[in-house]
Design brief:
Strand order of the largest sheet: 2-1-10-9-11-12-13-14
Largest sheet: 8 strands, mixed
Strand content: 15-25%
Radius of gyration: 23 Å
CATH class of the largest domain: Alpha Beta
Number of helices: 15
Shape: globular
Distance between the termini: 55 Å
Number of strands: 24
Number of domains: 3
Helix content: 25-40%
Length: 508
C-alpha cells in the first residue's frame, strides 16, 4: 500500500469537491476540485518533461495558489520538492541547483534568463516560469493536459522534499524529509491543535519554509478546510480577515506588528479560535500584551527544518510565556551535556530529539548526517534548552550562540530578557565577540523605542550589574534601528557578530 503524502491528503478531501480550498485576498477562489484537476495537470506536465520518481523539482516563485498546486503535483508525481527563497540571488541559487541537480526548475519570469544560464552550465534540465498572478509558461505548457494522473506509489521512507538550512555559517545543508516524516507531523499537529470542521486558516506566511508550506497548509488539507491566502503579511489586511477565520499561524514579528495597530482588539478577534506562534522566540511582553488586548493566549510551539514541529504549548492547559511546551505526541526529548550525558530536570544543555518526524539525513552529506545523530537515534538539535519538572521545554538559545567569557558559560537569552524589560527598549540581541583577555566578551545590540531618549549604554550596564553576575554583564552595548532577521523573523546573530567584529581588538 502506498504511503504517499498525497494519498493521505486525498483521503481527507471533503465529499463535496466544490468546497473552497483557497480564497485569496484579491477575490480568487479555488475549490478542492480545482486542486485535484490542476495538480493532476501539473503532475502530467512534469512526467512529460521526464520527471520520474525521486527526481528533484526546484521551485523559487512568489506565493500563489498555483505554487501550492505545484507542490501537491510533485507529491503526486513522486518527485522531490525543493522550495527556494525568492530572496536568494544567482550565486546562492547556483549552489542549490548544482547540489540538488533538479530535473525541472520553476522560477519567476523576471529571473528565467539567469536561471537558464545556471542550468545550462550544470547540465540537463528544464526551466519554467510562474508569476504571483498564476501566469507563466508553466501554466501555458500545462494547457488542457489530462488531469487523471495516477499517483506514483511511495514508501514512508521515500523523500518528499528537501529543504536547505539557512546556511548562515558554513555550507548550506539539504534536509531530506520523507512522506512518513511529513505525514506523522501533520497528523499529530492536526490532533494537537484541535482542528474541526469549519475551521478556516488565515495564511500569511511564506511557502518556501516549513511553517507556511508544511505546518499551515498540511493542517488545512487534513481538515478538508479552507485557507484565506495572503501573498504577504499586512496588518490591516490581516485584521480585516480575522472575522472570517478561526486560526492564525504567525511569527513573533507578526504579533508585534498587530499589537502596534490600534484596530486590533477583542472584537476583531471574536471569531478566532487559536493564534499560534513559531519560527522564532516570542517575547514575554508580546505574549502578555496580546492576551491583555484580545483575550487570546498565543500558543507558542518549537520546531526546525529537520523535524517539523517538536514541542507545543497545550491547546487545553497552561500556555507559559517563554516556554515552548512539552514534546508532541510520539516525540522524545532530552537535554544533554557536552559529553552527551542526559542532564537532570531543570539543567541547561543541548536539546536532542527522536521521533517519526525527524528527517532522514542531509542530502549527499552522509558524514554530516552521522555527526548529527547519536547511536541511539537521537538527533542533536544544536539548541540549548532546559526541561522543567512539568515537562515543558524552555529554549535558551543556539549552542553556536553560547558565549564563553573568561571560562564561564553565558546564555544570551537570560541577558536579553533583562534588557528587554528595561523602559524604552523594544528588543535586544546578545552576542559574543573576540576579546584578548576573556576569549569572548558579552556584547548587546539594542533597539530603542522610537523617540526614546534612553536608556544609554552606561544605564543599561548599570542596571544589569544590579541583577546579574558580573561575567554576564555586557562589556559593550551598541544601538540599532532594527535587528537583522531572516524571512521567518529569526535574528541573524552571525550578521551582528560580523558587523561588530574587532570591537575589542580580538579579531573576528
Amino acid at each position: 500500500m502506498s504511503a504517499s503524502l498525497y494519498d493521505l491528503f486525498r483521503s481527507r478531501f471533503p465529499s463535496d469537491l466544490d468546497a473552497p480550498f483557497i480564497e485569496t485576498a484579491e477575490g480568487r477562489s479555488y475549490s478542492y476540485r480545482d486542486l485535484d484537476l490542476l495538480s493532476g495537470r501539473f503532475a502530467r506536465l512534469l512526467a512529460d518533461l521526464g520527471v520520474v520518481k525521486d527526481d528533484r523539482v526546484a521551485v523559487r516563485v512568489d506565493k500563489s495558489p498555483e505554487a501550492i498546486m505545484l507542490y501537491i503535483a510533485c507529491l503526486r508525481a513522486g518527485a522531490i520538492y525543493l522550495p527556494l527563497n525568492t530572496a536568494y540571488g544567482p550565486a546562492e541559487v547556483g549552489y542549490f541547483l548544482n547540489d540538488a541537480e533538479p530535473r525541472v526548475v520553476v522560477t519567476r519570469p523576471e529571473d528565467a534568463a539567469w536561471t537558464r544560464e545556471i542550468m545550462a552550465a550544470s547540465g540537463d534540465g528544464h526551466v519554467l516560469t510562474l508569476d504571483d498572478a498564476g501566469g507563466g509558461d508553466l501554466i501555458e505548457r500545462t494547457g488542457d493536459r489530462d488531469p487523471d494522473f495516477a499517483t506514483v506509489a511511495a514508501a514512508a521512507d521515500d523523500i518528499a522534499a528537501i529543504l536547505y538550512t539557512s546556511g548562515t555559517t558554513g555550507r548550506s545543508k539539504g534536509a531530506m524529509l520523507s512522506h512518513g516524516n511529513l505525514a506523522a507531523n501533520a497528523l499529530t499537529l492536526h490532533r494537537a491543535w484541535g482542528f474541526v470542521s469549519g475551521d478556516v486558516l488565515l495564511h500569511v506566511l511564506p511557502i518556501f519554509h516549513t511553517h507556511g508550506l508544511f505546518v499551515a497548509t498540511h493542517c488545512v488539507l487534513l481538515n478538508g478546510g479552507t485557507m484565506i491566502f495572503h501573498d504577504r503579511f499586512d496588518t490591516d489586511r490581516t485584521i480585516d480577515d480575522l472575522p472570517r477565520a478561526t486560526v492564525l499561524m504567525g511569527v513573533p514579528t507578526h504579533y508585534a506588528r498587530l499589537l502596534a495597530n490600534p484596530r486590533l482588539d477583542a472584537r476583531a478577534c471574536a471569531n478566532m479560535r487559536l493564534f499560534i506562534s513559531g519560527s522564532a522566540p516570542l517575547r514575554s511582553e508580546t505574549f502578555e500584551s496580546f492576551r491583555a488586548r484580545t483575550g487570546h493566549v498565543i500558543l507558542e510551539r518549537y520546531g526546525m527544518t529537520e523535524a517539523g514541529m517538536i514541542t507545543a504549548n497545550p491547546l487545553a492547559g497552561p500556555r507559559l510565556a517563554g516556554a515552548v511546551g512539552p514534546p508532541l505526541s510520539g516525540v522524545e526529548a532530552r537535554v544533554v551535556n557536552e559529553h552527551g550525558t542526559p542532564l537532570p530536570s531543570g539543567e541547561t544543555g543541548v536539546l536532542e530529539i527522536r521521533g517519526p518526524n525527524v528527517f532522514k539525513g542531509y542530502w549527499r552529506m552522509p558524514e554530516k548526517t552521522r555527526e548529527e545523530f547519536r547511536d541511539d537515534g537521537f538527533f542533536i538539535t544544536g539548541d540549548l534548552a532546559r526541561i522543567d519538572a512539568a515537562g515543558y521545554v524552555w529554549i535558551v538559545g543556539r549552542a553556536k550562540d553560547l558565549v564563553i567569557s573568561g571560562g564561564f558559560n553565558v546564555y544570551p537569552k537570560e541577558i536579553e530578557i533583562c534588557i528587554d524589560a528595561l523602559p524604552g527598549v523594544v528588543e535586544s540581541a546578545v552576542i559574543g565577540l573576540a576579546h584578548p583577555d576573556f576569549g569572548e566578551a558579552v556584547t548587546a545590540v539594542v533597539v530603542r523605542a522610537p523617540g526614546a531618549d534612553g536608556p544609554d549604554e552606561a544605564e543599561i550596564i548599570a542596571r544589569l550589574k544590579a541583577r546579574l553576575a558580573n561575567f554576564k554583564v555586557p562589556k559593550r552595548v551598541f544601538f540599532a534601528d532594527e535587528l537583522p532577521r531572516n524571512a521567518m523573523g529569526k535574528v541573524q546573530k552571525a550578521a551582528l557578530r560580523e558587523a561588530h567584529a574587532g570591537t575589542f581588538g580580538g579579531g573576528s
